[in-house]
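Hi R.,

Here's the chain you asked about this morning:
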Amino acid sequence: MNEKKIVILTATFGMGHHSVSRALKSEIERVYLDYTIEIVDIFDIIKPSYKKIAQGIYNYLTREFETLYNFFYNYKKDSRKNLIDELLYARYNRRFKEYMDREQPSIVISTFPMTSGFMSRYKLKTNCNVPLMTVITDVVDSWEWVHEGTDQYFVPSIEVKDLLRLKGIDKDSIFVTGIPVGADFKVEKSTASHTQMKQVLIMASAMGKIKFDDVLLKQLESVENTKFIIVTGTDYELAEALSDKSYKNIQILGYVSNIAELMEASDLIYTKPGGVTLFEAINKEIPILIQQTTVGQEHANIEFVKNREIGIILDRKTHFADEIENIINDDVKLFQLKSNMYELKKEFKAEAILRAVR
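And here is the predicted structure, written out as C-alpha cells:
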C-alpha cells in the first residue's frame, strides 16, 4: 500500500477553481485507490466568514466595475510581491500553519494563486519538504501564481510555459497539461452523425449586456435548420421568465449537470471566456463563440482563443443573432475550428499530474 494524503487548496472566486479541484480529485482517486484526497477552501482555513464576502466582491467588480477590477488584477499580475496578498499572508500565516501542522498532508496541490502563496511561505518558514504543485486555471503567466518553493507547475499551454521560463522558472518543473476538466468532457466523441439541424448551446451567464427578450428570441427562432439550447444555470429568475415562452427551435433549461452531454450534441457553444469552460469545449472539440471582454484573466483567455484560432470573438457592437447564423452555416469555418482544437489537444500531457503524485 502506498497511502498518501493530498490536500487540494482552492478558493471561492468564480466556480473555475473549485471545478478544477474536483476534476483533479476524481482523476487521482480513479488511479490511486488508497489515497486520501481533500479539497479545502483557503477561506475555511483563514477566515470562514470572508468566503461569501470575497465571492460577492469578485462578482460585483467583474460585472459592474471592470476598470477597478483590472487595476487590482494587473497590479497583482505584474508584481513579484504585491502588497494586497502580502498583508493577507502576514495576517493569516499563523492560522494556515496551524492547519498544516494538524493535517500534515503528503502533497499539496494549489488551484488558486493565494493558496500557492500561503503554502510557499509555510514551506520557507518551517523548512518542510511537502511537495507544492500549482495548477494554473487560466491561460496566464501572472506573477501572483509564481512562488518560491513550488515544486511543479501544471499549465494550460505551451505559451504559458514559455512565459514562465522567462520569469526564471526551471523548464523541467513546468508541464503543459491543459486546464484539468471532468472525466465526462474527456470521453471519446461519438461517431454517430448529427441530424441535418445544427445545434447551438448558449450559456445564459455569458450574455452580459445582451438581454433575453422577445426580440432576441424571435431572431434566434428565425435562424433556419438550427436548434438553440439556452442554459440559465443558477439564474432562476431568468429561467422562470423564459419558461412561459414557447419557440419552435429553442429549448430552455435551468441548472443542469450534463453540460458535457449537451456540448457533445452541439455544433457551437456561446459561453464566457473562463478558463475551465474554454478547456471543456477544447476537450469536446466544440467551436466557441465568446463575448469580447476586458476583464483581466478572461481577456488573456480570449487572446489565446484568437491566437490558436479555436473560436470566434463577438464584438460588443456585433449583432448576436446574425453572427450566430453566419457561423453556424459556415461548415468550412466550423471544421477549421474543430481541427485546431484537435491539434491543440495533442500538446496536453495530462498524465504528468498523475505521475507527480505517484
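One quick note: The longest strand covers residues 5-10.

Cheers,
M.
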